[in-house]
Design brief:
The complex is a heterodimer of chains A (311) and B (390). Chain A has 311 residues and is an alpha/beta fold. Chain A contains 13 helices and 8 strands. Classes of the chains: A alpha/beta (311), B alpha+beta (390). The interface between A and B is large, with 85 and 90 residues.
Chain lengths: 311, 390
């Protein structure tokens, strides 16, 4: 998977939100993948991961729904890639339960069999990885660095991981790859940007309780954005579109709850990569954001025009 | 013998000074614990260094602290591992200086000798002295809040209660709790809402909700579902699962409480918890992927097309989200007003939606919760899952 000129192919699960409230994520991922030479085989028949909510209702239902997605991905003959921390966490949880017990797996596969599908444990080392993990572990940061046309010089970026891609560690492969909670920092540096350290990078955005406890939810979002601003961030970057909803879309509301001015751009991971690859903010859908992205654009303008593409 | 530097957050109330960082060099085998390191520093360098501890074997639950930012037991963390974790953080250029009050961040960074192991008192609770916290207001008071004792039906039996061993599997995980407070210390919801009942107390609540001898299951669930700081105040961040030294997985127990309250007892809580879960699950059955506009609408006012009966709290939330919706439409985030009309979001193509529906039919046959508690690892398949398949 790692030869510098190899074309990579992945079974691509875009998730729901990237085709709903954050269409700019799906769009920017497509542009960036093409530029990087990653072929996306979209799983357009696959279903929602359940985001932990369906598991809250019925674990077996969530496990079966995700087993179906895994089976569809395995059928393509490629590893699976997602672009959402929440999908990663919810799917990893189901995969852990499926992989732990052959009897349970057989029970789940019973219903999939009627659809010509089967989830096979460890099929040729099959894995489901967020774009972040794939970039660092399979694509390689050195190979990525070679593609950078516009180093993000002077751009001060705060990482925001999303809980589902961080915890629990035993479920998300941290025993084998303990640096997974540092990948965004490594990526920012590879793209030529500056990492901003602030308190909220590995905390919760609050989104899961936005309809249940608005105050708790928005206080979390507002506090983290405020902390990042206090540390001099120009923007945040996140691999999770649900975090994006609370940090960007709800930002004006969060500002009211924490009672201070905010106004910090929140980029999706493929957007940050895309800027360094030379795409324009508009192409990457940054105009669809709620929080102003103008400051990011000004910083990039200061850094100069992207180098001409060297095919 | 390996040497380590411990960077310890100190605080002495009698000094009238704020908290500060103190550094101690200790020398001990890498397989010994961080607690052993702290005790060595106290014995050899500063007898006033305070830490609460007793058994040194992860049984008594006294020595909860934060090590390199993570809540855990000092006696259960090997000092060699803590050192490796400190180095990893600094090597990656991502050290987050632990923050408490307004004190300076601790010195020591990559390239300047060994990276210090950063030790702080537990979070979300007041500090009495150095590493000793006051667990009364954020732990014990909340434990009492959930009525942590069995309330059986009728008179006690003449001899012991006889229960089916299988039915107790469900609560073995919560029985393992040693009340150390590590989960409370790590809780990100409590950080913004100190009133949240919290992971330890809610796990304790499930210990009785899941107990077949208890007669007040519904009353317990009703209480925890209706409380704005109850089961629906958990933001699902998994911090408590990582923090717990005994594998209690408090967040998983909170999700079970939600399932019991919403699905088994149909408790229509004022926090929109049941409605949110119900709406989400139904939308995926109908459409396969999530239609967020429809979710918002159905969470607040189930069956809006028929009769509009949102809860008063829902109306407040709904009104609160109107500005967000308007901004969303203006920026093209919600691509058009059509997006807000139910039925516009596409179903999965070419029969895929029927496959999803089949899965629902299959899984929803089990009206009783499957206990999918993972005990072991792969390869140990017989012990891996306790399955409650009927």
């Amino acid at each position: 998977m790692s030869n510098a000129n190899d074309k990579m192919t992945v079974a691509y699960w875009p998730g729901c939100v990237s085709r709903g409230f954050t269409p700019e994520l799906h769009g920017s991922m497509a542009l960036v993948a093409e530029r990087l030479g990653i072929e996306l085989v979209e799983l357009d028949r696959a279903n929602c991961c359940g985001a932990g909510v369906i598991a809250e209702h019925n674990q077996e239902l969530a496990d079966t729904l995700n087993a179906r997605t895994f089976a569809l991905a395995q059928k393509t003959g490629h590893g699976m890639m997602n672009i959402c921390s929440t999908c990663q966490g919810a799917q990893s949880e189901c995969q852990q339960r499926l992989d732990a017990d052959s009897g349970y797996r057989a029970h789940i596969n019973e219903v999939l069999a009627g659809q010509g599908l089967e989830y096979v444990k460890d099929k040729d080392g099959w894995e489901n990885k967020n774009f972040l993990w794939l970039l660092v572990e399979d694509y390689g940061l050195e190979r990525l660095a070679e593609q950078v046309k516009r180093p993000l010089a002077g751009l001060r970026v705060g990482p925001f991981y999303g809980c589902y891609i961080l915890r629990p560690k035993h479920r998300l492969g941290y025993e084998e790859r303990p640096e997974r909670d540092l990948y965004i920092e490594m990526l920012i540096e590879t793209l030529g940007g500056e990492v901003v350290e602030y308190d909220g990078a590995r905390k919760c955005c609050g989104f899961p309780v936005i309809t249940m406890n608005r105050e708790t939810s928005l206080k979390q979002a507002g506090t983290h954005i405020g902390d990042a601003l206090d540390q001099g961030a120009d923007c945040l970057v996140t691999p999770c579109p649900l975090c994006h909803l609370n940090l960007d879309m709800q930002q004006p509301e969060a500002a009211k709850v924490v009672n201070r001015d905010l106004g910090l751009a929140v980029l999706h991971l493929p957007q940050l990569v895309g800027l360094a690859l030379g795409f324009e903010p508009k192409e990457l859908g940054m105009g669809k954001h709620i929080a102003p992205t103008r400051w990011v654009e000004e910083r990039l303008a200061d850094a100069g025009e992207p180098a001409p593409a060297s095919a | 013998m390996p040497e380590y530097t411990l960077q310890i957050r100190r605080y002495q109330p009698e000094s009238n000074e704020g908290p500060y960082w103190d550094s101690f060099d200790v020398e001990l085998d890498e397989s010994l614990s961080v607690l052993d390191g702290i005790l060595q520093a106290r014995d050899r360098e500063d007898g006033s260094l305070s830490v609460r501890c007793s058994c040194r074997a992860a049984i008594c639950g006294s020595c909860g602290v934060k090590i390199n930012g993570s809540s855990t037991l000092a006696c259960k963390t090997q000092i060699g591992e803590a050192h490796a974790a400190a180095n990893r953080r600094n090597g990656g250029g991502a050290e987050q200086p632990p923050r408490g009050a307004d004190e300076e961040p601790p010195p020591g960074s990559a390239g300047h000798g060994p990276n210090p192991i950063v030790i702080e008192p537990m979070g979300n609770m007041p500090v009495i002295k150095d590493l000793v916290t006051d667990m009364e207001s954020t732990h014990w008071e909340k434990i009492r809040r959930v009525t942590p004792w069995l309330i059986p039906a009728g008179d006690a039996p003449e001899r012991e209660y006889i229960v089916d061993p299988e039915s107790m599997v469900d609560v073995t995980q919560e029985i393992a709790c040693i009340q150390c407070g590590a989960c409370v210390s790590s809780c990100l919801s409590m950080e913004v809402d100190p009133g949240f009942i919290g992971p330890a107390a809610l796990a304790k609540a499930y210990r009785f909700v899941g107990d077949p001898r208890d007669a007040e299951t519904e009353a317990r669930l009703y209480d925890l579902a209706q409380d704005p700081h109850g089961i629906y105040d958990c933001t699902h961040c998994f911090s408590c699962i990582d923090a717990c030294p005994k594998g209690v997985a408090p967040m998983d127990q909170i999700m079970r409480l939600r399932r019991r309250a919403a699905d088994d007892y149909g408790i229509d809580d004022v926090n929109n918890g049941r409605r949110h879960e119900h709406a989400f699950t139904k939308i995926i059955e109908k459409k396969g992927t999530l239609d967020e506009s429809l979710l918002l609408q159905e969470s607040f006012a189930e069956g809006i097309k028929g009769k509009l009966i949102p809860k008063p709290a829902a109306i407040k939330s709904l009104i609160g989200s109107v500005p967000t919706a308007i901004r969303g439409i203006r920026t093209g985030k919600m691509r058009s007003l059509r997006k807000l009309i139910p039925g516009v979001h596409e179903k999965l193509p070419d029969g895929a939606q029927d496959e999803v529906r089949q899965i629902y039919e299959h899984a929803e046959q089990h009206s009783v919760e499957l206990n999918l508690y993972i005990k072991g690892e792969e390869g140990d398949e017989e012990a891996a899952i306790e399955e409650g398949l009927e």
